[in-house]
Design a protein that fits this description.
243 residues, alpha/beta, TIM Barrel, two-stranded antiparallel ribbon, 8 helices, 9 strands, 33% helix, binds 2-acetamido-2-deoxy-beta-D-glucopyranose, Glyco_hydro_79, GH, Glycoside hydrolase family 79 protein
Length: 243
């Protein structure tokens, strides 16, 4: 996420709340416009009744995992301005994720060298340091965002199954510090694995990996009831939705 985007979003929200009240008493409004096929259509909007109500967490923010690789680029988590704008968006889900989540190793405290099983074709593998993890969690806690972590799905055992060892180190470290993590993802946009990482992840294997992730979360009272979101898709590839 760019902060530019965040302030634009904030303006949009302010604009929406200003523009949407109060509801006009003439509840049925009809407008005429020309459709794509030169066909005139009438749209009627009933402002008296809603079809459904969305929850308070309707705003979501992602900071791309690429920013970890870039050592946050120009993003300054300690800036009061950034923190105030972020706080104004609550309640909101905040996801650290994206393509490079699947190339990221977590190097924490006394962690020793880890077996590297990630195949990175277009992206080099990289480490997220303990400092970076602390920064992102402290920020999330300070501004009251509900954090979702996208875990590296390409940490693989020789038999192709997901290897949760590095994720376990991350969770142990986080549990020791009482970090609240609302939810977890496993990997990002599986349909692009071939072009980006020269590998594939079948829906069948992924569902087994999700069970492994669930067992991993169950090892930690703090994360036992965290939710798991997925499957991840950038283009709506139906394979992983049938899995
Ligand atoms: C709409 O009508 C115009 C003028 O008759 C025509 O040039 C255009 O191709 C039409 N567009 C579509 C999408 O049918
Ligand atoms: C990641 O950290 C490990 C362990 O500290 C180190 O051996 C490795 O060189 C690091 N990799 C990169 C790409 O910095
Ligand atoms: C975490 O929470 C426990 C129980 O509330 C508390 O005893 C402990 O000191 C906390 N640890 C840290 C690092 O904040
Ligand atoms: C990855 O690199 C290959 C070879 O250079 C290229 O054909 C492919 O488009 C790249 N994929 C992405 C997602 O950038
Ligand atoms: C992609 O993976 C295949 C099979 O594992 C391997 O033969 C090939 O060299 C890899 N391609 C690249 C560009 O790494």
């Amino acid at each position: 996420m760019e902060i530019k985007f965040m302030s634009t979003l904030l303006l949009c929200l302010l604009w929406m709340s200003a523009a949407s009240s109060p509801l006009q008493p003439d509840h049925h409004k009809a407008r005429r416009f020309s459709g794509g096929a030169n066909e005139s259509v009438t749209v009627t909007i009933n402002l008296q009744q809603s079809v459904s109500t969305i929850g308070p967490h309707f705003v979501g923010v992602t900071i791309d995992s690429r920013r970890v690789w870039e050592r946050w680029d120009s993003l300054d988590f300690t800036s009061k301005k950034v923190q105030n704008m972020a706080r104004a968006l609550t309640p909101t889900y905040f996801r650290l994720g994206g393509t490079m989540a699947d190339a990221m190793t977590y190097v924490l405290g006394s962690a020793t060298d880890l077996p590297e099983s990630t195949v990175a074709l277009n992206h080099s593998k990289f480490n997220m340091t303990e400092d970076q993890w602390v920064t992102v969690n402290e920020f999330s806690r300070t501004v009251g965002w509900d954090f979702i972590m996208d875990l590296n799905a390409l940490k693989r055992n020789a038999d192709g199954s997901w290897n949760p060892d590095n994720a376990r180190q991350l969770l142990q470290f986080s549990a020791d510090r009482n970090y609240t993590i609302a939810g977890f993802e496993l990997g990002n946009e599986y349909e692009s694995y071939q072009s980006v990482f020269n590998t594939t992840l079948s829906p069948g294997q992924l569902s087994k990996d999700m069970v492994t992730l669930q067992s991993l979360l169950a090892e930690f009272p703090q994360y036992y009831s965290a939710f798991i979101v997925g499957p991840e898709s950038g283009d709506g590839d139906p394979a992983h939705f049938r899995g």
